[in-house]
Design brief:
The complex is a heterodimer of chains A (115) and B (114).
Chain A: E1 4-7, E2 10-13, E3 19-25, E4 31-37, E5 43-51, E6 54-57, E7 64-66, E8 76-78, E9 87-94, E10 105-106, E11 110-114
Parallel strand pairs in A: 2-11
Antiparallel strand pairs in A: 1-3, 3-8, 4-5, 4-9, 5-6, 7-8, 9-10, 9-11
Chain B: E1 3-5, E2 10-14, E3 19-21, E4 24-26, E5 32-38, E6 44-50, E7 56-58, E8 64-68, E9 73-78, E10 87-94, E11 103-104, E12 108-113
Parallel strand pairs in B: 2-12
Antiparallel strand pairs in B: 1-4, 3-9, 5-6, 5-10, 7-8, 8-9, 10-11, 10-12
Classes of the chains: A mainly beta (115), B mainly beta (114).
Chain lengths: 115, 114
């Protein structure tokens, strides 16, 4: 089955620790995205990548980093510089042939709680 | 400023009742319009989308949405709600002439009473 896999589903970390969230897709999509979701605020774009070895900051990139070494993988690192990292993180991908009108396919999310 | 707004944060309806979720946008040109649904603790799934043409769009799970240019709205409707429709619903837009990033509204949480 084609889709997007995020891991882990739940993650607890102590304040000051970096943590990396995994996102893997087998849809052969060029474009991948990371969103952060907080109650009542919808989804906000953290980073996106439209091609391997290239990525761009979204609206709330501070305190986060990404890499795109392979087409299938787009890991997100939440660094200690992120002031309020507790949130639900969603990874998504899109067929780059339809960047304007195409459907975003989402993973099931990772819930990060910083203690 | 360009924005997409969902005025209702929470809505509760009885099972079998009709449903309308509101979405308003503020863009110079009509953007591409989408509705997504999110079940608790899950990712989002596309319900329907509008690009042009017929202003009444049919989607999955019995949902439809109507584009009204004069009101800058794209409201989601369902004639008869089922308990399984309880979820969070997001309206989203992609500007037609300014990049391809999806911008989401704040979401509406739907609760269904038995």
């Amino acid at each position: 089955d084609g889709g997007i896999t995020q891991s882990p589903k739940y993650l607890f970390r102590k304040e000051g620790q970096n943590v990396t969230l995994s996102c893997e897709q087998n849809l052969n999509h060029d474009a991948m995205y990371w969103y952060r979701q907080d109650p009542g605020q919808g989804l906000r774009l953290i980073y996106y990548s439209q091609i391997v070895n290239d990525f761009q900051k979204g609206d709330i990139a501070e305190g986060y980093s990404v890499s795109r070494e392979k087409k299938e993988s787009f890991p997100l690192t939440v660094t200690s510089a992120q002031k309020n990292p507790t949130a639900f993180y969603l990874c998504a991908s899109k067929d780059s042939g339809n960047l304007n009108t195409g459907e975003l396919f989402f993973g099931e999310g990772s819930r990060l709680t910083v203690l | 400023a360009q924005s997409v707004t969902q005025p209702d944060i929470h809505i509760t309806v009885s099972e079998g009742a009709s449903l309308e979720l509101r979405c308003n946008y503020s863009y110079g040109a009509t953007p591409y319009l989408f509705w997504y649904v999110q079940s608790p603790g899950q990712g989002l799934q596309l319900l329907l989308k509008y690009f042009s043409g017929d202003t009444l769009v049919q989607g999955i799970k019995g949902f439809e949405a109507e584009f009204k240019r004069s009101q800058s709205s794209f409201n989601l409707r369902k004639p008869s709600v089922h308990w399984s429709d309880a979820a969070e619903y997001f309206c989203a837009v992609v500007p037609r002439h300014a990049g391809n990033m999806l911008t989401f509204g704040g979401g509406t949480r739907l609760m269904v009473k038995p």
